[in-house]
Amino acid sequence: MPNYLSEGRRSIFLFKIPNPFKFLGDKQKAIGVYAAGAFFAIGWWAFIDAITLASRDPFKQVSIGFEDWISGILTTLGMIVINLIDKSSLHGDTFSYSGDSLVWKARLFLFVGFALIAGGLAGSVCVLILKYIVPEVPESELYYGIGQVAQCGFIMLSTVILWIAQNTQEEYQYNFML
After folding, report:
1. I need a surface site. Which of 36, 76, 95, 144 has the fewest CB within 10 A?
2. Rounded to whole angstroms, how far apart are CA atoms 16 and 22?
3. Is 95 inside a domain boundary?
4. What is the domain extent for residue 111?
5. Using the 8-state DSSP alphabet, how is residue 153 labeled?
6. Is residue 153 a part of any domain in this protein?
7. pTM for the full model?
8. Residue 162 class from Cβ within 10 Å (0-12 exposed, 13-18 middle, 19+ buried)?
9. Which residue stretches, if any, does this entry annotate as coiled coil (predicted)?
10. How many domains is the chain partitioned into structurally?
11. Which is nearest to 83 in space by CA: 40, 139, 129, 19?
């Protein structure tokens, strides 16, 4: 039995979940965007800090290669893909995969974006385990792998916060068309 929200859209939930950030008032969208940007910057800062430390260590056992960079690049591409999707194009009741239906194309790209993010995070965890934990490198070099996982985790958190912030409805919304 489908549940209909007050706006007339279908929902998969039986109960309507209230917005946990309602106490922020009119500024919740701006605060969410700034928080997402901060988490994105912290993620890349953690990775660049690990790369900088690795380049200055003359006695390092592990060198930084392309396998260390690719997980952060995939996660960032996933964030870009997810946040470029128009949220209104995800709502639709058509289950047809033929014709000019925009709904399934938007859902497909949303899936690709989340797959890129999940693949980036899984890749960073695999690099951490296979390159830094299994060969038992010194703890000072273990930070290089931890920086990669932190990078992907913060970018993933940034994506979720930005997605929620973009979906918040403002009280007054004006759409101008020229």
Report:
1. 95
2. 14
3. no
4. 27-90+100-167
5. H
6. yes
7. 0.78
8. buried
9. none
10. 1
11. 40
Residue 31 within any structural domain of the chain? yes
Structure tokens at 57: 């260590």
CB hemisphere CA count around 38 (13 angstroms): 7
4: β partners: 10
CA atoms of 142 and 145, how far apart (whole Å): 6
Asked whether the predicted pLDDT for residue 56 surpasses 80, the reply is yes
Tokens of 107: 């859902």
- Give CA–CA dist 23/25, Å, rounded: 5
Enter the tokens of residue 81. 């893909």
Map tokens 């999707």 to a residue.
85
Dump pLDDT digits (tens) for 13-23: 666 766 666 77
Q: What is the pLDDT of residue 4?
A: 46
Burial pattern 6-31, b for ≥16 Cβ within 10 A else e, equals eeeeeeeeeeeeeeeeeeeeeebbee
